[in-house]
């Protein structure tokens, strides 16, 4: 079953049967790393696990309604973006000086610096307009190409390029203002 493409796994995972659980588990293992990077970039590393759990619960509940009008990965990224937006709306925005410091006591200094940088990046991303944040996050953290992003967001290719360009410029400004050299 490991060698089956998504196009064959999704129907197996969508409908009751003896292969449903195994097919769904394979989809989870196959796509979770990329989705986790995407969620971490949007909501921060501390909330990404919760978002990912919400994504997979939603996918499990709604997979039978997937119409395959787009690629499964396109639909999956849209579900992830929606879960990230829900998580961002649910929590109060924190000013930068209230971003929690890394809590690991046994991490070396470098790991602490990287955790701080990730937290500052998550803060800066949260300050972007949603359409720019989505496009930048799908490109830089999700690894999608421009055409895939256009499919996920339901916009034209030129719009994707514009949003990414503006989002990157805004991120540079936000990060520079807090002492991070992008």
Compact summary:
Helices cover 71% and strands 0% of the residues.
What order do the helices and strands come in, and which of them pair?
Blueprint: H1 6-14, H2 20-43, H3 45-62, H4 72-90, H5 109-127, H6 130-140, H7 146-153, H8 157-177
Helix pairs in contact: 1-2, 2-3, 2-4, 2-5, 3-4, 4-7, 6-8, 7-8
List the keywords:
single chain; 182 residues; mainly alpha; Rna Polymerase Sigma Factor, Chain: A; Arc Repressor Mutant, subunit A; 2 domains; 8 helices; globular
Description:
The chain has helices at about 5-15, 20-45, 45-60, 70-90, 110-125, 130-140, 145-155, 155-175. The chain is an all-alpha fold. The chain has 2 domains: about 1-90, Rna Polymerase Sigma Factor, Chain: A (Orthogonal Bundle); about 110-180, Arc Repressor Mutant, subunit A. Helix 4 packs across helix 7 and helix 6 (about 130-140) packs across helix 8. The chain is globular. Mean pLDDT is about 85; it is low at about 95-105.
By secondary-structure content and strand pairing, the structural class works out as: mainly alpha
Global morphology? globular
CATH class of the largest domain: Mainly Alpha
The average pLDDT value, as a whole number, equals 86
What separation lies between the terminal Cα atoms? 43 Å
């Amino acid at each position: 079953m490991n060698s089956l493409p998504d196009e064959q796994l999704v129907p197996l995972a969508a409908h009751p049967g003896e292969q449903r659980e195994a097919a769904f588990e394979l989809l989870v293992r196959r796509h979770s790393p990329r989705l986790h990077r995407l969620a971490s970039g949007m909501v921060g590393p501390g909330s990404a696990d919760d978002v990912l759990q919400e994504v997979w619960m939603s996918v499990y509940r709604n997979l039978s309604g997937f119409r395959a009008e787009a690629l499964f990965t396109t639909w999956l990224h849209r579900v992830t973006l929606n879960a990230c937006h829900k998580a961002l709306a649910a929590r109060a925005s924190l000013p930068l000086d209230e971003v929690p410091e890394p809590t690991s006591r046994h991490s070396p200094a470098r790991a602490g610096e990287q955790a701080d940088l990730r937290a500052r990046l998550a803060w800066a991303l949260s300050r972007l307009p949603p359409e720019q944040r989505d496009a930048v996050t799908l490109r830089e953290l999700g690894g999608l190409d421009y055409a895939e992003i256009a499919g996920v967001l339901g916009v034209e290719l030129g719009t994707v390029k514009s949003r990414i360009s503006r989002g990157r410029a805004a991120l540079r400004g936000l990060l520079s203002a807090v002492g991070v050299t992008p």
